[in-house]
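RECORD TYPE: inverse folding
INPUT: structure tokens
STRUCTURE:
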């Protein structure tokens, strides 16, 4: 029987010294971040996921953002080479956790790729060109997944850290996006819905079957999604957001 597995990783005690690109540094309450992360894991479990924590990495401030370390498809897992050099030590333990579950491929220098830049919609993969993912990394990903029938397209992103800061897939036909950070035409012929302009960070959602997980801070965008018929579950990610994190960042979901 197919089950949905969610790989997660503990909040580092050094989260407050995380990498930042587009946000000013603000105090982060690590205990609150840990509580929010635990609530996020419980929400995933309530939606039918089996949550499995990989070994912690207390010396890596950004380690809770496990999504960036791998792109996992049904057929293969591509272990990334994060664009921030300080994060590359996060990868191996995640690769070890994935090895029993998928054949592994890897992004190698000079390529860089963060999982937060990767949106998978059916057999189509969109990858943000950002400070964290470069054209060499995108080309390597394309080569790794082409044998399984996937296409890979680069998407220009401005003003935010990752493509998934600007857009995520709501289902296999619809993308939620912030048009200030990514051109909605990049997703054609998919339908696009725009976040509320007052909530620029609201485009990040986790799909868990037919349900969506969304940051509780974005009430206006959530109301719009519900008006379009989506079932939205919320979680407080306010401390993680100070580290340029969001709900997708904190898990790798895969069918196991």
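DESIGNED SEQUENCE:
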């Amino acid at each position: 029987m197919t089950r949905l597995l969610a790989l997660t990783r503990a909040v580092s005690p050094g989260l407050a010294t995380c990498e930042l690109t587009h946000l000013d540094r603000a105090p982060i309450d690590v205990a609150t971040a840990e509580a929010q992360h635990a609530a996020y894991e419980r929400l995933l479990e309530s939606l039918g996921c089996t949550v499995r924590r990989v070994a912690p990495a207390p010396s890596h401030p950004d380690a809770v953002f496990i999504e960036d370390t791998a792109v996992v498809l049904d057929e293969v897992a591509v272990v990334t080479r994060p664009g921030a050099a300080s994060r590359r030590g996060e990868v191996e333990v995640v690769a070890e956790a994935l090895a029993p579950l998928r054949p592994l491929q890897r992004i190698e220098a000079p390529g860089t790729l963060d999982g937060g830049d990767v949106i998978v919609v059916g057999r189509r993969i969109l990858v943000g060109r950002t400070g964290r993912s470069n054209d060499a990394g995108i080309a390597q990903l394309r080569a790794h997944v082409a044998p399984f029938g996937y296409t890979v397209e680069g998407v220009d992103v401005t003003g935010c850290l990752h493509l998934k800061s600007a857009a995520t897939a709501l289902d296999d036909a619809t993308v939620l996006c912030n048009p200030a950070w990514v051109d909605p035409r990049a997703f054609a012929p998919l339908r696009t819905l725009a976040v509320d302009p007052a909530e620029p960070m609201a485009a990040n959602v986790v799909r868990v079957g037919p349900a969506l997980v969304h940051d509780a801070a974005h009430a206006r965008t959530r109301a719009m999604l519900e008006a379009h018929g989506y079932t939205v579950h919320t979680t407080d990610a306010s401390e993680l957001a100070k580290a340029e994190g969001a709900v997708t960042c904190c898990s790798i979901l895969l069918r196991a």
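NOTES: The chain has six helices and 15 strands.
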